[in-house]
Batch of 4 targets.
Target 1
Amino acid sequence: MNTIDPRTRLLLEAPIGATLLRLAAPNVLVMVAQAAAGLIETYFVGKLGTDALAGMALVFPIVMLMQMTSAGAMGGGIASSIARALGAGRRDDADALVLHAIVIALGFGLAFSLALLLGGRWLYAQMGGSGASLQAAVTYSHWVFAGAMLVWLFNSLAAVIRGTGNMTVPANVTVVGVIALVPLSPLLIFGWGPVPALGIAGGALALLLYYLVGTLALAAYLWSDRSLLKPSLANVKLRWLLFRDILRIGLIGAISTLATNLSIGVATSLAGGFGPAAIAGYGTAARLEYLLVPLVFGLGAPLVAMVGTCMGAGQHERALRATWIGAAMAFTLTEAIGLAAAAFPRAWLSLFGTDPAMLEAGTLYLRAVGPLYGFFGVALVLYFASQGAGRLLWPVAGNIARLAVAAIGGWLAIRWGGGLMQVFVAQGAGLVVYGVVIAAAIAGGAWFGRVGWPCRTATLLRRIQPG
């Protein structure tokens, strides 16, 4: 009989709310630190001039797509698979999943490298880059995506450790790395003493060094006596079943990630019909929506581990209770931020500019959509819980429904003579649909078979219990 590790027992037996909050704290710190890393690099690259900053801005959405896919989508699949294996007492499978996660990371990292090294210039030109800004984008992109495998390895190893319920080690590695970036970025960008000035390439190189050292630190922990997992690269045979367990969650999650970014892109395009100030106002206001993603991820990552472990152990009722407690926490956090933004929109918008037309457009967005941010928070945290359960069909369906409502509703608003406010109302309606679809599906039993409403918890549990 396998002895349950204390960390696994914590996920299976400790009070849910207090445990989620305690595990979420280091994750939130990680997200703040990673956001700080991007701001640090942007700040110093901005000192090189407008062309360098514009070039970096062209590459940023692709870097974010890689980050969200590796850390959130595929990372969630990795953490979920390991948590469910540990919860079911399959220690050998949990150990073997580490190697499978590394192989997946190397494969996707190589794919990103080839795609952007070969097609980056064409892509950034299609996005509007030209002249010096396009050249800056290509230079920065070549350096960053030459090391794409480091980004994937770092995020995948962090997901492996989070899958065991350990949120502290990835947090510590990330925070220490960001502290090191503060002097490293300007050193490589501007040079000093024997170190030559590398310009925008120096910013990319500093970022890759951060991921390299972080990857080595995470690997050193995993292969140390302190790690719950005992991976071996020598004696493990690659098995399709273990690859499938990760990929069936990670690939579906990637679709959801793409839909999220498409929703922002469609809204930007619709706002563009009202002029550059509308684009600037929407883009500035929507940065707050992007900020909600890492904040909810801080809560969602431990929820993946807890739900996955409970599902693996057959504790379905506890998995559902943890899910709804996490949803309540996420709603409270994101709704408070949205209401504050709606009440005081210029407190956020004025951080990025003072143009009156931009401020007016951004204010319209925050007043229309901000009060509905709670639905966005619920949708995101239920997406993470569904990763833990290994059931992502309805979260993806909800995100696609959000995209459809926002895009079609915004287009109809313009076609029927509506203004910018009506376009933003459609974006808010999309968030409501996103949250309601996922919550209703889980409440109706989507994790355990056919969906049917209404479905009380007791009835649902009777349906899923064996025998």
Target 2
Amino acid sequence: MWFTQLVERNRQCHPHRTAVADARRSVTWAEFHDRTAQLAHGFAALGIDRGDRVAILSQDRIEVLESYFALARIGALFVPLNHSLSAPEATEIIERVGAVAVVGETELLDRHPELPASVRLRVALDQPVFEALGTEAPEPRPALPDVADTDPVAVLHTSATTGRAKGVTVDAASFRAIALGWLVSARPTDDMVMVNCCPLYHGSMVVSLTYMAAGTTIVLMPGFTPQRAVAAVERHRATHMWMVPQMVRFMLQAKASRTANLGSLREILYGAAPMPPEVYTEAVERLGCGFRQVYGMTEVGGPFVTLGPEEHPAPGQVDARIPCGRVVPGMSARAVDDAGREVPGGEIGEIVVRGPGVMQGYWNEPDATAEITLDGWIRTGDLGFFDGQGRIHLVDRSKDLIIRAGQNVYPSEIERVLTQHPAVLDAAVVGTPDDDYGEVPLAYVVATEGTTAADLLAHARENLAPYKRPTRFEFLAQVPRNPAGKIVKKLLRA
């Protein structure tokens, strides 16, 4: 079983190295190994069995990862929940997966007093009852189930930018395939310490789990703030950070980043959204570290494409979007047309993926699984092309594509141009119906006080063809984004 093997190897090879740290404490690989084994027996003693689903409702902390590994050890599926979900939203997911238990922080559990009938256990991981789990197991301890790598190990929910979140069922073989392929490409060093700024309740967690397979130290935070991120780097002498581009922007804006000692940083991993050129340029110049792009999707196992620091452009030389990079060993991708035929290099098509990292399917949603599957390939919904070096260049989401009088308009291109205006802080573009052209671009913009639509239209005229220019500008205080940094365009369309 991959999860158990991972922990056992790191206990043998790096027993005294810090495995995980959070704001409260840290644990070594030997301690993490012993506690996850102990906790597995504790969960089993509570009646949690192989195949059971257990929801996890918590901010990022050591106990969350301990629970994931312990549940995987007994063949139960961990189901991470976004801790900001409303009571009806969380209840719907818990009921849909038929969770038998909810493990979480007391404050969050108290927000959900009414749970579905399937839930027979509520366990507060910040209370003594959790600490005691497994500590009184008799010796010799009873044998745990024999779990195969092809057994489902988790139900990870999508970010739901276009509709209801779907439960992605993954097995340990998926985690293993992505981890091994990624580590071959990224080649982490033994002294790597990574501050994880992204939450552990969706597919981005795979990045942390992947580096844990190499014995890396992972530093967790109870929610991102730029001040916490900077302090974590300084305190732990972190070599790496895992962020979304908006987090990088916020960190650069924070006063703490100008006075803190961040000289230990060697690499910032970023993904989930395009990196604005001006943010990238400032970050390289200010932080002096390398950047690694992460392109992934929960349905294909997480991060399956990367562009390393050596292939990133020099500051100030980003004239368009930075390519995503190459597929990691073990996974395959191609760009296809509407009929599923592979398109020639340089031509835009939908990116599809296959390999041992892909999901088993959406939980109890065979129709949705069939819809996203194309002759054994998983459809990403992303439009892009391959260059002559095998690198993927993303253009836009297929669902976001605007067709104006038969011409394709990519919102991301307009967003990139708008954010190059010195007064624009953020932008999002969606299609809106038009009697003459069928559909036209509508731009939502966050800008400095005094900026007018006329200012932005003049900027668009200088940088965009007529058919790409927004017909209207709406000013917002903030562009809606989910925790992964992706624009939630369904809210703007509504």
Target 3
Amino acid sequence: MAVLQKDKLKERLLQNYSDELDHSGVSGERMASRLSLLSEIGVTADGGSCRIGFSTEERQAKELVKSWMQEAGLVVREDEAGNIIAVFAGIHPNEPVVLSGSHLDSVPNGGHFDGPLGVLCALEVAEAWKESGYQPHRTYEMIIFSDEEGARFNGGLTGSQAFTGELEMEQQLKLRDGEGKPFEQVVREYGLAANRFLDAKRDITEIAAFIEVHIEQGKVLENKDVPVGVVTGIAGPKWIKFSFKGSADHAGNTPMYDRKDALVASSWFVYELSGIPKEVSPTAVATAGKVEVFPNGINVIPGQADVYVDMRDISEESVATLSERIIQKAHEAAQLHGIAVEYNETLDVAPVPIQMEMQHLLLRAVEEMKLTPVLLPSGAAHDTMVLARYVPAAMLFVRSQGGISHHPDEWTTLDDCVQAVHVLKKAIESLVSR
């Protein structure tokens, strides 16, 4: 059942909420109200969210959160890439700042927690400090990154890459959206100038650490019956296209013993593929998500079958091992079936491990909240993946009901959301007091 809109989302969040979680200035009702209000922006017919990057809807969501930031007394600015930054000044404003946040854009028919939860958790920390009169030693900043999902240009992490100086503008300017609009036109209509994007680059020495809260988008925490977990690393995807090449012969006149069926060979490879990751590491995964068959005729033996494999893990060494074993299995499949195989690497993104010190920071905060500490990897990319290459960074995952994400049925209970706020608050307070 899709998440209900308007007051219904707030009602559902508050329905079984544990009031004892309202303490230290943190308000579950405020979180529920804000999640509900954001859910109204870009609502789909299925009750989901559609706020693709650099859209009117993403802009509206940013403006709404900006108003909450300003009401909290924060100084708010927007950089050249459309990232929104709110500042809670510390006693020593010249020291490197502590940063937390996420994104507000979505996939075309997504849920209401992926991204917004991390933004609102970061803001709730500042709201709690305001209510309790807490003054941090270091300055605390909240950030809303632009276009994390990449639904518009089949990319993503645009805001965080601009923020760190990673964005390759030459490639970015070549992009066109589904309507054929070039990147430059899209961002101009959004209120930005493409030739200024690189000016969004932040001096990394100004940042002491970054923490992002995000829904898990998996079932590990649900299966362990815990509200939050600490991310150990973010898997980098490597994609390889395997082309199995046999002979496209007549389906009726070619006897079974004399066939060079590329699809049969590729099918054996796909079947064997599923057993390889567990031989490499407990966090490794591999998926044959796309297969193309040629000539793809019902009465023709497939002469070629292309299998696209996505493989991931949280360390470069294990990804390299996984890749080697998968390539070896492809050669084995080809040899076993008397055909040839070629392969071509189409994507290779380095995984990003989370520093042990940052993991321990979050684990201590989890234990202070009397919660069971759980470590788990992230199989999906997040803005943290970009920031962690430059500054100490950490991620806190929050339980996802059924592991559902990028779908209107995406759901995280308010209890779990508020538990995440408390853990984040303790971790941030530890960082800003140094």
Target 4
Amino acid sequence: MRGRLARSSLFFMAAIVLVSLFSGFAVATEATQFGEYSADDFTYESRCRQCHAIIYADWEGTMHFNAYLDPFYLEEVKVASDDTDGLIDEFCSRCHTPIGVVSGEIPPIDGSEMSDISKLGVQCDFCHVVSGSDGTGNAPFTVTPGDTKWGPFDDSKSAYHESEYLELYTQSEYCGMCHQVIHPVNGLVIDDTYSSWKESQYGEDNIVCQDCHMTEGITEFEANPGRAGSGAPKRDHISSHDIVGGNAFIPVMFGAENIADMAVERLQKATTMEVTTPEIASAGDKVTIKATITNSGAGHNIPTGVSEIRQVWLEVNVTDATGNVIYSAGTLDIYGNIDGAKLIYNNILGDSEGNATDSFWLADRVLEDNRIGPKETVTEEHTFTLPGNVVYPLTVQTNLNYRSAPQYTIDHLFGEEMYEVPVINMNQVSSTIYDPATPPEERTESTPGFSIFAASMAFVLIMHIFYRK
């Protein structure tokens, strides 16, 4: 496998060209290449925050801030580099440490040649010296370091630097440069965040990434009035630079609990769920629990990103009045593995031999795609036979859960008991099944819907345990 990947490295540029054609850009600029600049050509964020303190505070601690320092990324990319004889070193680094790539500091993949500014991930000066793009996917950005900074306003003035308007900053294609990833050898789409948006109703209505991820709203545009910098004019909307997704795992490692909290809130508003259960059931009856899950708030698939390791699943627990478990599915065993889930909503990739793999760099096919598309509704049914001697009423607890990676993946990379991957409750519905002999007037209504307080408190407890570990 390694030899085949190494011999095929010339396909990398071909993949870039194909992605550029896919983007639909009318005018493209040549992508900046490896080693074209020096790290000294870029400005440290400490200079930027002198005038842009609020925007800097938004960005600090985010996944863009930690794009390179993310310990999960650092461990994964070492494995990927070894598996591919270094073929993916520049490929992965181009989004995680773009300054490191355009300044020729990486490879080596271990970062031993990197300057401090290259380790700042997707930082201020890099983003705002993007002067064009050669399309979407695999980071075909054009950067022009220097005194001019580009952005979304056509009337910006600064005492420190020149300012230029670039329409790209107002389009999803800006985000799509990195949030669309195509295998550099075989063309397999690994991350389709951009294309799944482009093909959705959101794309048709031109509701762009920035409308959800750079506003005060969570799943729709909400204006954020203010100033882009000290001395700048007050505007009806200033883009928020926290740009949070669904990762509540990594930010806590860096003390950014506020970013983790925002990720949880975003996950909790991404879906709606309805659960139907019979109101009454007798011993021997076949009981069916039907859950419908709708991707009502995300403009892309759920989950997205490296969705072969993301996990969304339904947990169902039925207990009687004494706490005895009548039925369960989707619970975690003592090792953190998901036990008995009907389906895990993610992408299953396959290698050249058709075996499932979580290593996207070894994948050349999609074996299954169980993600939930924008505005899509999926249905899941759980059926069991009600045993005798149960104590009524029965409680049905249905949770839609999410975690950034399987526990076994983290254990494999870092060792067991190093990190516990938090499980976020995206949605929750409770209902009750009664004894047929119970008079209707004594049956209280079920409580469908999501309990923000209960889920938030559960997450706080998980984060407390995780932080202590």
